[in-house]
Amino acid sequence: MAQKQTSSLIDFRGLFRQYLSKWYFFVISVLVCGSLAYVYTKIKPPKYAVHASILISDDKSNSLSEGLGGLSSLFGAKGSVDDEIYVISSHSVFRQVAKDLGINVQHLVKTELLGSNLAYPTWPVDLVTPSEMADTLQGTIMVKAMVNKKGKADVEVIYAKKKIGEVKKAEFPISIQTKLGELTLTKTPYFLNNEKFKTVIYFSGYDVAAEDMSRAVSTDIASRRANVINLAIDTPNPDYGIDVLNEIIATYNKRGIEEKNQKSVQSAKFIDERLVLLAEDLNRSEHEIQDYKQKHNIIDIEAEAKYQSTKKGQIETSLIEAETNYEIVSMVAKFFKDPANAYLMAPTTLDNQGLQLAIKDYNELILRRMDLLNSARSDNAALRLLTEQIDAMRENLAQSIEKARETAGITVRDLRNERGKADARLGAIPSQERDYIDMKRQQEVKQELYLFLLQSREENALVMANAVPKGVIIDEAFKYTKPLGLSKKIILLFAILLGLCIPPMIMYLRKTLRNRFETRQEVERITDVPILGEMCIDHSGETIVAKPGNTSSAAELFRLMRSTITQFILGTPDEKVILLTSSTSGEGKTYISINLAASFAMMGKRTILVGLDIRNPRLSQYLDIKPRLGMTQYLASDEIKPEQIIVNVPSVKDLDMIVAGPVPPNPSELLLSSRIDELFTQLRKDYDYIVVDTAPIGLVSDTFTLERVADATIYVCRANYTSLNDLSYINELYDQDRLKRLSIVINGTAAKKTYGYRTRKE
């Protein structure tokens, strides 16, 4: 074992000599890696991180709205920061930014041998296209222009990987006719005179540019405790990134202001319509009073009826309030009944606190729907779900408001009944005075409602005049001074180190990548386990080669293995049980088990082959014998006797067999059964040799369980199949004496000599 341990140590001196002999390999590797790193630093320009941040303001925090009170609660809702992130990063916002900045046109200018730079905002050549092309183009047009020192250019237009236009040695301005329309190249004030350069212009539709921008720009919440959104973009041109982020914020704020104004416009429209109707009613009431006074020659009827009306003053006041409330509830109910108002903001001017809160929640849903309509398609699932929610909520609100209107009407009727009783007590008052009081009261109700709506209109106008953006800019877009990634020096240093590491890695991998043994000598170097012999590959296609009259190499090898086992492995006549296992399936364990058992039977010895690989039984398949009962059935039932599961192998005299049987759900528990011990006790009495085909030891622990009934264990390895790690594991089993009289059979080699038993080295 000392020799094995010494050989496992790393020979650093030998490795150094080996690497030194391949010095040219290291030189070439360093030169290649260094050159590639240099080219990489030239081709790939440095990227800079550009950041910006905004604070999402709360509409409810607007001091002006708090001061006014009325209209601020009429229409309004606060969206979450998550919703605002969705809005600010929506396709419609990015599309508008691409259109406003014109960044659907990207200019790359190449002036050196390697690499090109994003020319923004000073590009030497501009591309002019039809105005409608950017709106409809669903791809990217690439325009390559090679400009010589004389200012003439060779131009090539590519779309969908196909050339669609080309001109040679053309002077600016250059027009190119394509199937998509006429493209024109013009000089800009930044044109490189008397200098040869190459420019590549990428022209995309606004939708494509928006998609590209969505992949480049990232948005996230700075903190859950603060309504702050961070925007970031990594770009080789910081000016480009700064303009993009600032324009995104500007577009987002512009949309926010437009949305707020839209809410105010809807409110103003509703108020103006009601004011027109109330003004007509109020004018009509005033004219009726004037006509009544003139007709009945009444100068100051209020003074005349003051005494008589004192007692019912409180009733009249309550009635006015009730009727005013009824009018307001009726207006809101009419609003919800009108289909034209289906997805408009609803007024919340109700005296009922519960209905006020419900309408406020309804308005918040309306606002969310407006935001989604600006950024989502009509078939969007979220939009559809939100619309269904609004419809259901509108129906419930309409029912609740109708009930509130009925309740208000009942209150008005009750107060009118009380007023009637009071009027009856005032019978002394002339009917003229009573009529006048009624007319005056109606006028006061309408006038109060009219004044309320006038106030609301002024509040609404002030809100429109003082609309502030949603996003308060905390940090305008700025770039970090240091570029992202590693510096050029660090990249070159890493390349040199990599160049020094690659040759040893390749040399080591070439040596160790082959993780399977090929020859007996490799097995002997790794393990001290005795080797019974080598089984060469048999090309006859027969399952049983160990039979009388067969003088093939495979048959002779099994005879030699049999002799070695009887002479060196099984020491006494009482030692009969031989377990065969392997590391994994496919190493020939079952094949060798069958032929080893047949080889014992050729000696005239009563032999039985026991299939105890109950997880993957193969014996019956190999021998084409399918008995009714097997080992698993015997272990599972106390009523089955051993003789019921033993069958004869017709092709081999003196050879019996027990197949594994159906695969059980609990193989480990079955193998621990005492019936295993009882069976092998009986088999030892009836047979001279017992060959047991067990499960691969590298997959399951069944073989260790069966070690109690075995006298010897044969571990089958296969050349070019069994891994070197498995051989090391076999050596560990041998050193720990976990399997009785462990030995190895090498299967699948081309060897025809040097068979025999090698004793363990001490």
Strand order of the largest sheet: 14-21-20-15-19-16-18-17
Number of strands: 21
Give the rounded overall mean pLDDT.
Answer: 80
CATH topology of the largest domain: Rossmann fold
Count structural domains.
4
**Largest sheet, strands/sense/barrel:** 8 strands, mixed
**What's the CATH H-level homologous superfamily of the largest domain?**
P-loop containing nucleotide triphosphate hydrolases
Secondary structure tally, helices:
25
Task: Give the proportion of residues in helices.
Answer: 40-55%
Low-pLDDT runs: 1-9, 60-79, 753-762
Q: In terms of structural class, how would the helical and strand content be classed? A: alpha/beta
How far apart are the first and last residues' alpha carbons, in Å?
7 Å
Approximate shape: elongated
For this structure, the quaternary state is single chain
> How much strand content do the residues show?
15-25%
Descriptors for this entry?
762 residues, alpha/beta, 4 domains, 8-stranded mixed sheet, 6-stranded antiparallel sheet, 21 strands, disordered N terminus, disordered C terminus
Question: In short, what is this structure?
Answer:
The chain is α/β, with parallel strands linked by helices.
